[in-house]
Amino acid sequence: MEWPRVAAPPGVAERNWRDWTWQMQHRITSAAALAAFVAPSDDERSAIDALAGRFRFVITPYYASLMDPNDPACPIRRQVVPRLAELDDPAGLADPLDEVAHSPVKNVVRVYGDRIAFCVNNECALYCRYCLRKRMVGEPAWAMKKRELQIALDWIRATPSIRDVLLTGGDPLVFSDDKLDWLLGELRAIPHVELIRLGTRLPVTLPCRVTEALCRLLERRHPIWVNTHFNHPKELTADAAEAIDKLTRAGCPVGNQSVLLRGINDDVATMKALCEGLVRMRVRPYYCYQAQLLEGTAHFRVPIERGVELFRALRGRTSGFAIPLYVLDTPYGKVPLTHAYLRGREGDSVVVESYDGRIWREPNPL
Ligand code: SF4
User: What is the CATH number of domain 100-331?
Assistant: First the structure.
């Protein structure tokens, strides 16, 4: 099956459209600019104004081209265009995972003994309305000066138990090649850092960022694993497939971390199409996160029981490795949210349930 290629809009030269720096310089930041791609609804227009001081509104032209121009319920539009519903979430918190309290130095989050999330950057190519780190992304106070990056690197050097470093943000691939190469080189020079992971949404939102030069740079710093963030089958384009192909040919295993979002991907058919499309692209669906109790996101949240049933409905109906683990992130780490297939013990047998609800008693003496 061929994925659609996202064409340059009339009047934009192809070479500019496929240049990630051009895309970054021409990002959409106002209702007037958005109107070149879609007909903004009254709700969207009002929300862009009302939320301007709370969370940045920025979209790449590439990602805006995936939007349905006439449907405000479009799953691409809903991820990145503000809605007035963001103002109506009394339960939402700024930092539901208590990341600030888990930071030994600025922008390093440590929940587990052997690994950290290193928020190297406060910038993204666009800003997702449900972003877990909306308290910091796009906020100048959270930008990392080179001196602060050095302090964090010093902390990693002085902490030999850290073997796995996730570079996240924001988005580390928004860095220039030179800056990223410097940072990867510093990490690679630390003997106890075995694994470097990149958490990036750019293969989805700005796939032309994955250049040959970037891939050559990554090849020199292996092992590097990439986790990206597709949420909907509409994001599976020929452009994204090309970016993934380059990364995998450069030796980076690529996984996907989606978020379960109400009205976007919280139905079996959409999630199945997303996961099977990812596998065809050679991306392993890794985690699907329960949306956090995060300020301004009540309209995205799904009851956990419904999420469990959704992933139960995929089990046995598609390749096992196409099904991500549905998880709830907590201040104590990730908790798998799965149907209880293990039903308990009956004497010398363990009782289990198959994907289609049949009961099996497995002899298993204690
Ligand atoms: S790309 Fe990731 S870090 Fe950036 S706004 Fe979206 S969810 Fe947040």
Answer: 3.20.20.70
